[in-house]
Amino acid sequence: MKALHFGAGNIGRGFIGKLLADAGIELTFADVSPALLDALNSRKGYDVHVVGEQATVEPVSNVNAVNSAGQDAINLIAEVDLVTTAVGPTVLEKIAPNVAKGLVLRHQQGNEKPLNIIACENMVRGTSQFKQHVFNALPEEEKAWVDAHIGFVDSAVDRIVPPAAAGTTDPLEVTVETFSEWIVDKTQFIGELPDIAGMELTDNLMAFVERKLFTLNTGHAITAYLGQQAGHATIRDAILDEKVRLVVRGAMEESGEVLIRRYGFDPEKHAAYIEKILSRFENPYLHDDVERVGRQPLRKLSAGDRLIKPLLGTQEYRLPNDNLVRGIAAAMRYRSEQDPQAKELAELLEKVGPKAALAQISGLPEEGEVVAKAVALYESMH
């Protein structure tokens, strides 16, 4: 089996690419970074540092790389059996035109073998959104063939992969936590279902997508935002702060109650899942900055994302949401010189005031109770 994976960054190398290579799949990375491409092609492999109670170094071998913007990537799409991505939600649209060209070439070459495409991004139904970008780039007459021969498979991914340690000069060095979860929607595959260790198949993906979004992503973001407010530099420092931990746990319990009502999750098992997430945040081997985890606050405060979506669920089922609202207020206070969205947020707050700004970003009613509560908390957080 052959696979092409877009994105040779830390998640690409440390998570999805590693699982594919470990499964004995002939793997090519596609990226635009000359340093990554050169290193992968000269060494054909790299080490993954897995950190936890037992730290291990796991080698990945027999890989190579092509430029994702070039003809080699297009040629490979015409012949591989699987295409995966870990490029970040905003980059999917940029790689779509080349993927579309590869699919057209596949048709021209008469390759009728099923091809499945899985976007492994931190977003809800990312592959379905990617499919829209690809179809926007396809000639009209190719769309029916692509629909018949290409599976666009949604997935939920979960593994904390912090940036490389300061002082590391090896562009391929990557550190990951022990825990990983890759859940894919088996109803969307074309052809045989793949058998890849570490890939879990489900026919109820949204339950797992929302479980991760409402627990890991919600908790991670609130830890970062409250952590920054309390002057902590790392996620571990923040979650070990009892005041922060109380709100983070409370928020995950509030969002968890939504999941239990919506999907019938077992309350005891979900409580254990929350504990697992909290222990991951305090992993002493993961040096993860609150500033990195908090970045892109406009996206994180949007209606379909980790703070507002669970909040809307609490309104739907008439459940408490005080901790989620506190997390939203802290997100409004997030500041970072390195993050364009943080600057945009600060400018919007300055220009229209917190009430109108939050309503505009989140889609929540400006005169509603939640906006009033969040703004009062935001103003008390000086």
Description:
With 382 residues, this protein is an alpha/beta fold. Helix content is 51%, strand content 15%. It contains 17 helices and 12 strands. The chain has a 6-stranded parallel β-sheet with strand order 5-2-1-6-7-8, with helices on both faces. The model has no long low-confidence stretch (mean pLDDT 96).
Helix-strand blueprint:
Blueprint: E1 2-6, H1 10-22, E2 26-31, H2 34-43, E3 45-51, E4 56-61, E5 63-67, H3 71-77, E6 82-85, H4 92-108, E7 115-119, H5 126-137, H6 143-149, E8 150-153, E9 155-158, E10 174-177, E11 181-185, E12 199-202, H7 205-229, H8 235-239, H9 242-263, H10 267-281, H11 290-294, H12 297-300, H13 308-316, H14 322-332, H15 340-352, H16 354-362, H17 369-380
Parallel strand pairs: 1-2, 1-6, 2-5, 3-10, 6-7, 7-8, 11-12
Antiparallel strand pairs: 3-4, 9-11
